[in-house]
């Protein structure tokens, strides 16, 4: 259905090297080595243009290709996905029913919202901003669970290459809820339209969230239409030093992010075993 980029080396005056990667879905895709900002811009534009008649293409930054898989956080390391989905769904319904501050939110918005603050869901993160995607490709996260929270530390990617993935979606039909779009295969949520700006983090990150419409979507690799690998040191040079592209800007403290403060105060806390399985409202550390 979607057009997978297979001849980008012919589209730019640069010499573009590439290698083949087999995705978990079984498809083979070229991984193009990109070393100039012009080529990266053209690569993203090429993917969007080629898929203009079938849907939209968004961007995702990753520090690794994870053996060609793209598994949403809820299902990573899980085997019985149906039971996992049932337990997760019950938790979400209970929270929406019992926590007064969250009752106003439709589940299609609430799940993407809480994932952005650390809860594991069936959604994956995408953006339509190359610099935000590049930042996430160039930074790794370490986490440690202590009692009812995960503590997260970001640092520069230690791998030789960082990756920009182009992710396609057929979710182009706006629903009855502002910012929520559906298609036959996927649902897309633009959190900047769906949520007020006092939830500052999604707005700072130009956040979209995407999920397949199936009950337990275990892998999203069939939505990948392009992969660029960027030498990490070149990417870090492109990024430079920019207040908009810093941990404090992309993950604003609760003092500035009133929505984050609400999450820390109102989202139910569980013991560490539950946190390890379903995540928590994360706390960023230096």
Write the layout of secondary structure elements.
Layout: E1 18-22, E2 28-33, H1 37-50, E3 56-62, H2 81-98, H3 107-116, E4 124-127, H4 130-137, E5 139-146, E6 149-156, E7 161-169, E8 173-174, E9 180-182, E10 186-190, H5 191-194, H6 200-204, E11 207-212, E12 224-231, H7 232-239, H8 247-250, H9 258-266, H10 272-278, E13 283-284
Parallel strand pairs: 2-12, 6-13
Antiparallel strand pairs: 1-2, 3-7, 4-11, 5-6, 7-12, 8-9, 9-10, 10-11
Question: What's this, in brief?
Answer:
The chain has 286 residues and is an alpha+beta fold. The chain has helices spanning 37-50, 81-98, 107-116, 130-137, 191-194, 200-204, 232-239, 247-250, 258-266, 272-278; strands at residues 18-22, 28-33, 56-62, 124-127, 139-146, 149-156, 161-169, 173-174, 180-182, 186-190, 207-212, 224-231, 283-284.
